[in-house]
Design a protein that fits this description.
Shape: globular
CATH superfamily: NAD(P)-binding Rossmann-like Domain
Number of domains: 1
Distance between the termini: 66 Å
Helix content: 40-55%
Structural class: alpha/beta
């Protein structure tokens, strides 16, 4: 292993006084990338894709078996990776991610923060400690990641800070109040930080990736008080679509990217008719997040520690039959087409929303009266 001098002894090519008019990120094959939350699902798919394209990768998780198998897979394909165990709710452990990455590879070019946990339960059944734990992992973990990554990226003179939140940063779902709150908080944090970086003309690209419902083991690992294993509202999308967006953002500065067509529809509906969306979700989103598979609160979950001995350390979840392609993700890579399509969607929503709103509202009211 190579050894490098402490951060304070290394040169700092960037200073806030420098005028940065354009952020030019390194080609992927020249990058050192930290993927935080990498043992399964989106993070695992992302780490594998970076390695396939020639990046050096530091993979981070609480699951030792997941990290061991991931590094093994990357090494077998001819890539280079190191494993770092960390709980992102602990700032010292997040700091160690940066330290170990720089100690081994000499620098950091892209930080991908993907780690998350959840609890599926009605709000009144969630304890203060459980709610706080989700906030500590999903929100404070993102904050700690940025605190550690920013100085390292600035020292290199450029870099990408990529945070994976969720479409629930735009529209909350019932039975996921801590998760939704944490994702809304993360988006608020990122929006504030982005403007600060723009003001100081920092050479850092800050991207928010907002996945829709993705077919990962996330639903296997979450704590549930529903009495059954949770799921989300279909359609599901393959984790590789989110990995594609993350890898794209590591080379191309982009503000945010929603992954999955249903997420774009949900985001637009929340902007155009939030009350109507409340009514629709009240009808479909409670039962729609429940499977028929019995699962209890004390069954293995990842709220406080890694969920298993490795059985969920894989890319895909259990819902391949509900997985569908996404046709609009490429719009974020072609801005002119993106805004033209959104203008068309907006016009369509205005034309159809007025006609359909009363019918859905009447259905919701009839449902309420029957309860």
């Amino acid at each position: 292993m190579k050894h490098y001098p402490p951060h304070s002894l290394l040169p700092t090519p960037y200073s806030p006084q420098e005028k940065m008019t354009e952020i030019k990120l390194k080609p992927i094959q020249d990058q050192v990338v930290a993927v935080v939350g990498a043992s399964s699902g989106i993070g695992r798919a992302t780490a594998l894709q970076f390695a396939q394209k020639g990046a050096k990768v530091a993979v981070v998780s609480r699951s030792e078996p997941g990290l061991v198998s991931l590094v093994q897979e990357i090494t077998q394909m001819g890539g280079e990776a190191i494993a770092i165990m960390a709980d992102v709710a602990n700032f010292e452990q997040v700091q160690a991610i940066g330290d170990k990455t720089v100690q081994h590879f000499g620098r950091l070019d892209t930080w991908v923060h993907n780690a998350a946990t959840s609890i599926f339960a009605p709000f009144e059944q969630i304890t203060p400690e459980e709610f706080k734990r989700v906030i500590d992992v999903n929100l404070m973990g993102q904050v700690y990641g940025a605190m550690v990554a920013l100085p390292l990226l600035k020292r290199e003179g450029r870099g990408a800070l990529i945070h994976v939140t969720s479409v629930e940063a735009r529209r909350s779902l019932p039975l996921q109040s801590p998760y939704s709150a944490s994702k809304h908080g993360a988006e608020g944090f990122l929006d504030s930080l982005r403007v600060e970086l723009m003001h100081e003309k920092a050479p850092i690209s800050l991207t928010n990736i907002l996945p829709s419902t993705i077919n990962t083991p996330f639903y296997n690992k979450g704590m549930t008080k529903l009495g059954v294993k949770p799921m989300s509202l279909p359609p599901y999308y393959h984790p590789s679509l989110v990995a594609d967006a993350i890898v794209y953002a590591s080379e191309h500065p982009v503000r945010d990217m929603i992954v999955g067509d249903s997420g774009r529809v949900l985001d637009l509906a929340q902007k155009v008719a939030p009350g109507l969306l409340d009514s629709i979700l009240s009808l479909i989103a409670i039962q729609g997040q429940k499977t028929n598979e019995i699962k209890l609160p004390d069954d293995p979950n990842n709220l406080y520690s890694a969920a298993s001995t490795g059985e969920y350390d894989r890319v895909e979840g259990d819902y391949n039959a509900l997985t569908t392609p996404s046709f609009l993700d490429s719009l974020d890579k072609h801005p002119l087409f993106k805004w033209g399509a959104f203008a068309g969607l907006g016009l369509l929503a205005m034309m159809t929303g007025m006609g359909g709103a009363m019918g859905v509202k009447d259905a919701a009211e009839s449902h309420s009266e029957s309860l």
